[in-house]
Amino acid sequence: MAGWLIAVLIVAAVLILIVLLLQIRLKILFTxxxxxxxxxxxxxxxxxxxxxxxRRRMKRPVEKEKEAEKKEKPRPKRKAGDLIxxxxxxxxRAARAxxxxxxxxxxxxxxxxxxWGGEDAAAVAVGYGGATAxxxxxxxxxxxxxxxxxHDLSVDADFSRxxxxxxxxxxxxxxxxxxxxxxISLGVSSLPGLxxxxxxGDSGEKIQNGKAEEAT
Length: 216
Fold this sequence. Notes:
This protein is an alpha/beta fold. The chain is built from five helices and seven strands, in the order αβββααβαβββα. Strand 4 (about 105-115), helix 4 (about 120-145) and strand 5 (about 145-150) form a beta-alpha-beta unit. Helix 3 (about 80-100) packs antiparallel against helix 5.
């Protein structure tokens, strides 16, 4: 009898500990500069952990040789329109995943500035229109499913730039339980969109390889 009682107390203590751990609140800070520098920090109380950029480690000679080979064969760059298509597909899915949570995820700060540029003025105008529409869809989904305290969103056209650029600054506060529920729901629903985005780059690489073979 005493053994069963001890087992029940141990199980209850473990469950209470799990519940308490799931209530720990984390802060996620994400920044993206116009130069393309990305930074991701996770903070739990006074403790901060840098996720991006990853800390550099000493590379072995073999790893350096492999890296040199990769640089010799650069992957084709995806177009900015592919990224907008990805965002317009994933953001609604992420919003629906967040909307299923009992308590909304808190966004303390959301800053997103998109500058659309290019060498062709007509293409810039078309891209600007598509980016503006995408930004409207983005904000509608975020505002409805997240608790946003402060936001600053804008889309501009810059004919002096040769490529589009973006600047972002996001600070999110959520518990481990919210991360678990959001991650499971988003992971299942966002997989098709991610696969399409990845295949688009692979298909472009195959096309270029095929053209190179034909030329030889």
